[in-house]
Amino acid sequence: MRVGLIGTGNMGNRIGPKLLKAGHSLLVHDVRREAAAALCQAGAQWIDAPRKLAESAEAVLTSLPEPAIVKEVVLDPESGLLTAMKAGSAYIDISTSTPWLAQEIAEPADAVGVDAFDAPLSSGGVYIGVGGDRQAFERWRPVLEAAGDHVSYVGGPGMGQALKLVRQYVGFSHFMAEAEALVIAAKAGLDVKATAEFVGASVGGSAFRDRVFGALFARDFGTPGQAPSALDIVAKDLQLAVELARRVHAPASIGLATSDVLQRGQAQGWGRHNFWAAVQVLEQMAGAELRPRQQEQAP
Questions:
Q1: CATH class of the domain whose range is 2-156
Q2: Residues 6+ apart with CB under 8 A from 283
Q3: Backbone φ and ψ of 275, nearest 5°
Q4: Residue 133 CB neighbours (<10 A)
Q5: Quick one: residue 287, left, alpha or beta (phi over 0 = left, psi -120 to 50 = alpha)?
Q6: Is residue 268 a contact partner of residue 280, using CB atoms and an 8 Å limit?
Q7: Spatial CA neighbour of 289 closest among 231, 227, 216
Q8: What is the reported pLDDT for 299?
Q9: pLDDT averaged over the chain?
Q10: Between the CA atoms of 169, 146, 69 and 51, what dihedral angle is there, to the nearest 10 degrees?
Q11: Domain boundaries along the sequence of the chain
Q12: Please, which pLDDT band fits residue 21 given cuts at 50, 70 and 90?
């Protein structure tokens, strides 16, 4: 199948090789051609414009940084994808966006005979929750399963995005709560690394958690612009999750507190670093750093 991919950043470069490995022909476009270099070397074909890509592909995937860009790329009345896609094709948004934009896209897509799905990636594409028409989902399941390891249909248009925002709310609020607890531990005189290990063993841990706290304890916040889990992206996701709570009239006090810390980190200029750079906000408030005891004692 001829699959188009618009947006070849961190996520696009993760799923592009999967699509190629599954045997699909891959057409790619990005605002920076160099971002697609690795995929082109692997066998993808560069296309100069999104609309031109849409004319050629049977399914078009977008992996874009924010909802406003998704809306422009898809719905612009002159250059948007839906002005060029053929009836019987599919549009699949794998970005983290909003349920209300997914619903806004679904109606005009249906009017021109395009199956529209919101299918944001979680855990780097390991998990995908898909919103859209159920029968259409079954038709396009092979493309979705080429992109993700665990693909689940979760409801109508917008439900894939709602699921992703709930997931982001849980994951990053939980992380910030644990980081705050470790700041308390540091102030109380505990060794933060030993405390993190004890909490992970007794409350619950993961390989991702261990990597993040390991980087935090090493004061490794990533190279600006090259960080795979950028604070700017995480802060955007939490803001969208809180906005979802507001729209459905649900409480979001924990998410609001987490979002505040993330935005304070952005204000300090750490937005292009990995998201755990924001823990420095908590450290500043407490007057303590999360350094393992052996590091504190080093000359």
A1: alpha beta
A2: 183, 289, 290
A3: -60, -30
A4: 17
A5: left
A6: yes
A7: 216
A8: 45
A9: 95
A10: -170
A11: 2-156, 163-297
A12: very high
Whole-angstrom distance, CA of residue 84 vs CA of residue 213: 46
Tell me the two tokens of residue 145.
């399963």
Classified as helix, coil or strand, 65 is coil
Would you state the structure tokens that stand for residue 98, as one six-digit string? 């909003």
CB atoms closer than 10 angstroms to residue 253: 9
Please determine, for residue 232, whether its predicted confidence score (pLDDT) is greater than 50. yes
CATH code, 163-297: 1.10.1040.10
Residues in the chain: 299
Please state the rounded mean pLDDT for residues 18-36: 96
b/e map 165-188, b = 16+ CB within 10 Å? bebbbebbbebbebbbbbbebbee
| β-sheet bridge partners, residue 268 | none
- What is the predicted pLDDT for the residue at 251? 98
Report whether pLDDT(291) > 50: yes
Q: How many whole angstroms separate alpha carbon 214 and alpha carbon 221?
A: 11
pTM of the complete model: 0.93
Model confidence pLDDT, tens digit, residues 140-174? 999 999 999 999 999 999 999 999 999 999 999 99
Interatomic CA distance for residues 67 and 186, integer angstroms:
39
State how far the alpha carbon of 222 is from the alpha carbons of 13, 38, 130, 212, 218, in Å.
19, 21, 31, 11, 11
How high is the pLDDT of residue 295? Answer: 55
Residues 6+ apart with CB under 8 A from 240: 67, 96, 97, 98, 165, 168
The pLDDT tens digits of the residues spanning 87-124 come to 999 999 999 999 999 999 999 999 999 999 999 999 98
